[in-house]
Amino acid sequence: MEYTRFEKARIIGARALQIALGAPILIHIPGDMYDPLDIAIYEFEKGVIPITVKRSK
What's the rounded Cα separation, in Å, for the pair 27 and 55? Predict the structure, then answer.
């Protein structure tokens, strides 16, 4: 699914907040990556974030 830039920002932001509050990381990350936003972007690029977008018709 192709996301708009607004959907992408919302998904990454929501996931970064989850990570910052202690949610488990869903993928093995490089050892030098500690920032929740960087981790959320990495997870988004790998396609492992379990957040969906519901669009109205």
Answer: 27
Q: What is the Rg, in whole angstroms, of the alpha carbon atoms belonging to the chain? A: 12
* pLDDT (0 to 100) of residue 56: 87
Q: Which residue ranges make up each domain of the chain? A: 5-46
The fold of 5-46 is Eukaryotic RPB6 RNA polymerase subunit (3.90.940)
For residue range 1-57, what is the model confidence (pLDDT) as tens digits? 799 999 999 999 999 999 999 999 999 999 999 999 999 999 999 999 988 899 888
